[in-house]
Amino acid sequence: MTETNAIKLTRFGYRFGRGGVHSSRTMMLAELRALLSYVDKADAPKAEYLEAIQTVNCLGKRSGKTRVLTYRHLVELYTLDPSFVLFRALRFFWQRDTSGQPLLAALFAYSRDPIFRSSASIVLAYQEGATVAREVLEDFIDNQEHGRFSPATLKSTAQNINATWTQAGHLTGRARKVRTQALATPGAVAFALLLGYLAGQRGENLFSSEYMRLLDCSFNRAIELAEDASRRGWITLKRVGQVIEVVFPNLITAQEMEWLREQN
Q1: In the chain, what are the domains?
Q2: 115-125: string of b/e by CB count within 10 Å (b at 16+)?
Q3: What is the pLDDT of residue 7?
Q4: Nearest to residue 78, comparing CAs of 57, 49, 99?
Q5: Cα angle for residues 96, 99, 105 (degrees, 5° grid)
Q6: pLDDT at residue 2 greater than cutoff 90
Q7: Phi, psi of 253 (to 5 degrees)
Q8: What tens digit of pLDDT does each residue of 109-134 get?
Q9: How far is it, in rounded angstroms, from Cα 143 to Cα 159?
Q10: Distance CA 207, CA 161 (A)
Q11: From 261's CA, which of 129, 136, 208, 247 has a CA 20 to 30 Å away?
Q12: How far, in Å, CA of 47 to CA of 233, rounded?
């Protein structure tokens, strides 16, 4: 992806560059669930999330410093800002597809955390039942930018990445991580389609995007789940023979559609 395209995608909530939360935390699924349950208004401004975490301490953190860091990490992963279509879409599907929440969080984290995003090429390549050794991820991270991280940081980053893939359903086990198949849902498929759409893909190509690969489901299964999402009114899917059209009338504003026209 060119630097210009990356900058354009940041208007929708994507994040690029170096680093990421996974050098110190996982995708924080438990904290995200608790926060979105406490701040239950889909259109709540970013300031309400700040107040909930730092003032009310809805996440039960022991110190002010921990609350500040938790808020910072959650913003870095999920924006917590309804001015971004990615966060509005997350809240839309989060409420309507509770079983899809782990994959929804993983898709969002993938779109914003470069370290976690790069690990997908390793983890998703494993066959179901294979052991995913932490050391493999350590070597992979180190090879991306040799010497950037200390051995201790490499180890903790690999552990955090493995924990996120476990929370998402791609791995099981504690000390020994085993590749499993994630459970795709209508909401997760719809969110993956939106991510691909905002990135410029259209038609059938939406079902083979990098975001769809995170769902561990076949093309036919993805079509079935997208049709389910369409029947529920979450997205609009039209299919005539080999021609597929997907649009998102409930999620993308007029301003964002204008950005997409400029982008394309």
Answers
A1: 3-96 (no CATH), 114-179 (1.10.10), 186-263 (1.10.10)
A2: bbbbbbebbee
A3: 84
A4: 49
A5: 85
A6: no
A7: -80, 170
A8: 999 999 999 999 999 999 999 999 99
A9: 17
A10: 25
A11: 208
A12: 30
Instruction: Name the token pair of 199.
Output: 């990135």
Gap between the Cα atoms of 104 and 123, Å rounded: 18
Label each residue of 56-105 as H, E or C.
CCCCCCCCHHHHHHHHHHHHHHHCCCCCCHHHHHHHHHHHHCHHHHHHHH
Count Cα neighbours of 175 within 13 Å in the Cβ-side half-sphere.
0
Could you tell me the two tokens for 81? 């800002």
Question: In this predicted model, what pLDDT tens digit does every residue of 27-36 receive, in sequence order?
Answer: 999 999 999 9
- Give me the mean pLDDT over the 151-172 stretch: 96
Among all chains, which residue has been given the structure tokens 């086990």? 173
3-state secondary structure of 236: strand
Reduced 3-state DSSP string for 184-235: CCHHHHHHHHHHHHHCCCCHHHHHHCHHHHCCCCCHHHHHHHHHHHHHCCCC
Give the mean model confidence (pLDDT) for residues 224-251. Answer: 95
- Which has the closest alpha carbon to 217: 195, 196, 226? 226
Q: Are strands 236-240 and 243-247 parallel, antiparallel or unpaired?
A: antiparallel
- What is the distance between the alpha carbons of residues 139 and 237, in angstroms, rounded to a whole number? 42
Question: How far apart are alpha carbons 136 and 144 in whole angstroms?
Answer: 13
pTM for the full predicted model: 0.95
**Residues 6+ away with beta carbon under 8 Å from 119:** 137, 140, 141, 161, 165
For residue 216, is pLDDT > 80? yes
Nearest Cα to Cα of residue 177 among 126, 215, 142? 126
